[in-house]
Amino acid sequence: MHFHIITILPEFFESPLSCGLLGKAIEKGIVQTSLIFPRDFTSDRHSTVDDRPYGGGPGMVMMVDPLFKALNSLPENCKKILLTPKGSPFNQQAARRFSRERDIALVCGRYEGIDTRIEKLFDLEEVSAGDYVLNGGEAAALCLMESVSRFLPGFMGKQESVGEESFSEGLLEYPHYTRPEQYQGLGVPEVLLSGHHGRISRWRRERSLENTFRLRPRLLDETTLSNEDIDFLRSLEKFSPARNLYLSLIHAPVMNKTGKESVTSLTNLDIHDIARVCETFGLGGYYICTPLKDQQALGKRLIAHWTTGAGGQGNPDRAVALSGISICENLDEAISCIEIQAGIKPQIIATSARGSGNITFGEVRSLLNRGPVLIVLGTGYGLSPAVVSLADAILRPVRYLSPFNHLSVRSATSIMVDRIIGDYY
Known about the structure:
Elements: E1 2-6, H1 20-28, E2 32-36, E3 50-51, E4 61-62, H2 64-72, E5 79-89, H3 92-98, E6 103-108, H4 117-121, E7 125-128, H5 138-149, H6 160-163, E8 182-183, E9 186-187, H7 190-193, H8 197-215, H9 227-236, E10 245-250, E11 254-255, E12 261-262, H10 268-281, E13 285-289, H11 293-307, H12 310-314, H13 316-322, E14 325-328, H14 331-342, E15 347-350, H15 361-367, E16 373-378, H16 385-388, E17 393-394, H17 409-420
Parallel strand pairs: 1-2, 1-6, 5-6, 5-7, 10-13, 10-16, 13-14, 15-16, 15-17
Antiparallel strand pairs: 3-4, 8-9, 11-12
Helix pairs in contact: 3-5, 8-9, 10-13, 10-17
C-alpha cells in the first residue's frame, strides 16, 4: 500500500509517520508514503499555491494549477481521495474498501478550500473525517491512513485483533480489563475470571450490543443481528428514552376548510392505528382530546371493548395497544396527566403540514434525553392558532419540500415517530 500525500505542510507528517504501528509498518515496507509538495509544481518565484477568492470574501483559496500538476504526477490507476467536510463520512466499511487499493492519493486542502475546478478535472472521491471543521486535511489524512493500514496483512501484531475492534461488525467494542483484579473498590466482572470461553464470548457480545444501543444506536441499522441479539436488545428497551415521548391527538379546536375553528369527531382508525404506533415504538402514552361529552363516552366505550370487553378477548395484542390511550377534555388536561406521570411538565411540540417548522426530528430526539416531550397532532385541517400558541416549538413537516402535503394524521404520525425513534433510539 502506497499513500501519496499532497500537502503544503509536509512537516505535519514527520512524527506520526515515524512512530507506533504505522511507523513500524513503514519500516517493514508494508506501507509506503510519498509527500507531494504543491509548491514544487509552481513557476513563479514565490511558489504561490493560493490566491484571493473570486466574488470576494475572507481568506484564500488553493489554486487549481499546482494541484492539477501534482495529481498528474501520480501513478496510473492511483485512487484519488479529497479530504473535505462535504465528503461522505469516513467509516470502517470505507477503510476496508480502500485497503484493497495499491496506490492512494490523499489531497489535503488548506485555507478556505480548493478551487472547485479540480473536482471536475479528476475523478476524486470526497471523504469527510466528521461533521466538524479542521484547519486542513492533514489530520483527516492521518486518520484515514491509520484506519486503512490496519487491514493490511502484517500490520497488526495479531491479525485477529482487527476483527474484534469497534465497528468491525458494525458495533462498538466491549469493555476491557487487565491487572489488578481489584482497584479503588472496582473489580473485574466475574465472567471474565471464569475461564468459560462460551460465557465470556456471549458477555462480550452483549456488552458490545449494549454500548452500541446506548451510545451509537443508529449503527444497529447496518448490523447483522441474531435472534439472541434481538432478544437481548429488547430487554434494554425499558431503558430507552422513547418512554419520554407522548402523543396527543386534538379534536378541538382545529381548523376547517374555510379557515375557521371547529370540532372534529373521533375516528376508529385514528384510535387504533396511532395506539399501535405508540405500543410498537414503546412511547409513554397516547392522549385523545375532545371537549364533547358524547365523543368522550364513545372513545371510552371503544377502548373498553378492545381492552376489557369481547374485542380484547379475541385480539389480545390490540388490547395491549389500546390500553395506553387516555381520553381528555383538552390539551391542558393531557399536559397535566403527563406532568403527574413523569414528575415534570413536558416540552410541547406542535405539528403542521404547512410552513417550515422550527425544530427538526433529530432535535426532538435529543430532547428525550432531558425529559418528557409531547407531540401534538391535529385533525381536520390542522391545529388552531390557540393550540399552537401553547407549544414550545413546531415540528418540521414530514414532506416540507413537497407542495402536496396531505397525509392522514395516522400516516404522518407513523412517519414522524419512526424518524424520531426508529427501531432503536
